[in-house]
From TrEMBL:
It comes from the Eukaryota. Belongs to the peptidase A1 family. It comes from Urochloa decumbens. PROSITE patterns: PEPTIDASE_A1. The active site is at residues 118, 327. Residues 100-441 form the Peptidase A1 domain. InterPro entries: Aspartic_peptidase_A1 (IPR001461), PEPTIDASE_A1 (IPR033121), Peptidase_aspartic_dom_sf (IPR021109), TAXi_C (IPR032799), TAXi_N (IPR032861). Coiled coil: none annotated. This is Peptidase A1 domain-containing protein.
Length: 445
């Protein structure tokens, strides 16, 4: 496991791929962790993308997206997707007495909770005792128990924080306590639900914040054997990013290590631009952060072109007009069909020396190769050209995935693209929310 040097700003914790060689010690159960098949991973990935597109369509923010359902018909469990090597961190939640004999001294150390980073959701949640299995799922961390935290406080039904949940996330009122519900994309019956509450949260050694989150007593139709919940980082007022802004500033960043790498990544709260760094630094490739008025959850950027080995593809910038949502949990980047067709043609031309292989099951990845006997595989260099001419060269590990081109096409040019974590890996992705800028720093992990 290789140590990393995160930026010297904000408060940070190590970030791991769930199934990677450096996965969290608490993830081990004594037996080898079951790895999903590629077909299952790609089906789950498509559900994730469909969920983002559907939310934008229902809000009227995007066209070309069917409201009738997913392109994936299998009734798969969406939240099991975070078993698929997604980014996880550990945080401390709550506070407990140092010992039963000394109630006068309070420790500000809560229980460790392993959570999945999610840049495309707003309400953080963790499983809370009592949480019978099922409907809850087993986890290797100790369950957060609100009765053992001296700083736990349920949100009241009539409070502004409860009203802020709105129709999308609000549940019923129980015993005067606000209830939340986060629906998972595969069905209306699949959700995380429980009491909306506050407690202390520590991300790394920095200052604790009073944190609103969902205390889940039921997360139906999940199948996760490790993570305690989801750390939402979206642009809505309920997210960790929004709640932490008064303490850390409206900025956060992460670096996701390459699949199979023995390097650690990191997650940082804070890091607003300044004289010594941030997106104003020459180390970052910067581009404007775009937002949806009716769906503030999503952060997006605008591509205007793609280059392969320095040659700009012949794609009109209007093909990219819908922009592209940044997502830490989706794996494969989705492009407008016009742009993807041009990328595929150019990529196949540069890879003509390698024998072609059949597409993946389901056909999501359609440009695959048989590298049997190949001593050294060198894929062409791929660069994303953003608004205002910023050029981001992807790490070579984000070009091929399971010996296939790690990109796929949307169904319509009018649908927003999705920049997944395969293309983000090894670089710091800095979200300067206050400044309205996204920055990318090469070789950060």
């Amino acid at each position: 496991m290789t140590a990393i040097s995160p930026p010297q700003h904000g408060s940070w914790v190590p970030l791991y791929r769930h199934l990677g060689p450096c996965s969290l010690p608490s993830s081990f159960t004594g037996a080898a962790k079951a790895k999903p098949s590629l077909a299952d991973l790609l089906r789950q990935d498509q559900l994730r993308v469909d969920h983002i597109h559907r939310r934008l369509s229902e809000s009227g923010e995007a066209v070309g997206v069917s409201k009738e359902g997913s392109s994936v018909k299998d009734p798969l469990r969406f939240e099991a997707a975070y078993l698929h090597d997604q980014p996880v961190i550990q945080v401390l939640l709550g506070s407990q007495p140092k010992s039963s004999d000394d109630q006068q001294q309070q420790s500000q150390v809560g229980v460790i909770q392993t959570v999945v980073l999610d840049t495309a959701s707003d309400v953080p949640w963790v499983q809370c005792a009592p949480c019978p299995i099922p409907p809850c799922h087993p986890q290797t961390d100790t369950f957060y128990d609100p009765t053992k935290s001296s700083t736990y406080d349920p949100v009241s039904c009539g409070s502004p924080a409860c009203a802020q949940l709105g129709r999308l996330y609000s549940g019923s009122c129980a015993n005067g306590h606000c209830q939340y519900r986060v629906r998972f994309p595969n069905s209306n019956a699949s959700s995380s639900s429980g009491t909306y509450a506050t407690d202390l949260l520590a991300v790394g050694p920095g200052a604790q914040i009073t944190f609103r989150f969902g205390c889940s007593h039921a997360d139906a139709d999940t199948n996760d054997a490790t993570a305690a919940g989801v750390m939402a980082l979206g642009g809505g007022p309920e997210s960790l990013a929004s709640q932490a802004a008064p303490t850390y500033g409206s900025a956060f960043s992460y670096c996701i290590p390459a699949t199979g790498s023995r390097r650690l990544g990191f997650f940082v709260l804070g890091g607003a631009p300044g004289a010594g760094g941030g997106v104003s630094s020459s180390q970052y490739v910067a581009t404007p952060m775009l937002r949806y008025q009716r769906v503030p959850t999503f952060y997006r950027v605008r591509l205007i072109g793609i280059a392969v080995n320095g040659q700009l593809l012949n794609v009109t910038p209007s093909a990219f007009a819908a922009g592209a949502v940044l997502d830490a949990r989706a794996a494969v980047t989705r492009l407008p069909p016009t742009a993807y067709a041009a990328l595929r043609e150019a990529f196949r031309g540069w890879m003509a020396a390698y024998p072609a292989a059949p597409p993946t099951k389901g056909g999501l990845l359609d440009t695959c190769y048989d590298f049997t006997g190949a001593f050294f595989v060198v894929p062409p260099r791929i660069e994303l050209v953003f608004e205002k001419g910023s050029v981001l060269e992807l790490d070579r590990t984000g070009v091929l995935f399971h010996d296939c081109l790690a990109f796929a096409a949307n169904r319509d040019d009018r649908m927003p693209g999705i920049i997944g974590n395969l293309q983000q890996q090894t670089m710091e992705v800095l979200y300067d929310v206050a400044g309205g800028v996204v920055g990318f720093r090469h070789g950060a992990c």
